[in-house]
Description:
Distance between the termini: 36 Å
Number of helices: 10
Number of domains: 2
Strand order of the largest sheet: 3-2-1-4-5
Bound molecules: xanthosine-5'-monophosphate
CATH topology of the largest domain: Rossmann fold
Oligomer: single chain
Helix content: 25-40%
Amino acid sequence: MASSEVFEEGKERKMFEPEKFIQKQVQEVREKIEDGKAVIAVSGGVDSTVCAMLTHRAVGDRLVAVFIDDGLMREGEAEQVIDFFKSRNMNARLVDAANEFFDGLKGIVDPEEKRKAFRNTFYSVLGRVVREENASHLIQGTIAADVAETVKGIKTQHNILEQIGIDPESYGLTIVEPLRALYKHEVREVARSLGLPAEFSERPPFPGPGLATRVLGEVTPERVEIERKATKIVEEETSDIESFQTMAILMNDRATGIREGKRAFGYIIAVRLVKSKDAITAEAVNVPWEVLKRIDKRITTEIPEVVHVLYSLTDKPPATIEFQ
Ligand code: XMP
């Protein structure tokens, strides 16, 4: 089975054998990299984590796993990811690039423009790391759904290099995408087979541009901080509710509220939980009212800038999972 083969959306392969897939990919990756050096940008997501583990099996210390701290991750995420790779005795590096990302996003409100700005900064930082590390290969965790949605032109995916006109070969860099033929549930099977802890193998998807995807309007450090606090509250309060993704979204508009008897013109947070199998369609989760009220109370108490909390009801389609 060719690793570049893309399967029809939502269709499960008759028999997917993760052990065989691992064996074959480790072999292929080893043959591709030969005696070169590889870099992978890891995010903690299942795709990049699995790619890093496969590549580490193939070339050991000649892989550097780099976590680019873009200032757009959830609380504690950078440390958690780096600690995990270090616990597996892998070469792991944290690159603090938050200021560069915020500079790149300054003044931009259009969702696709934000994605492009994120992507440009991402590849500029990653390019720097690749040069510093003298790498010959860049490992990418692209999966089949990324390719399919990009081909359909629904949203740009920051990891599809062809789409952004980057020709890695012109930089003397070879791209390796071990998961390009797999759908998410298959990647999770591979993750379990590799013995990854559930916090990685079952990790809900999280967009590449991080919390920037969930901050409508301009992405500033102050607005991301509000979004980050709200995300933490929503995740904590819904940890025992089954969902495909759980999120808080900072709206671009403000609402009139009351604080200490005075008019307060504050932020609005939307809460969204969806069930889905493959992210192609999704259904809003019926979250118990008491849970929603608890989230509302905590957000409006712990984040004084927020005066109004909403729950998102719409399925995909016609909505998409993210708001932008
Ligand atoms: P939508 O919002 O299109 O999302 O229904 C489908 C799935 O893709 C994730 N998503 C992204 N992932 N970069 C990513 O890596 C992005 O720009 C992006 N936008 C959406 C979303 O979280 C959902 O799982």
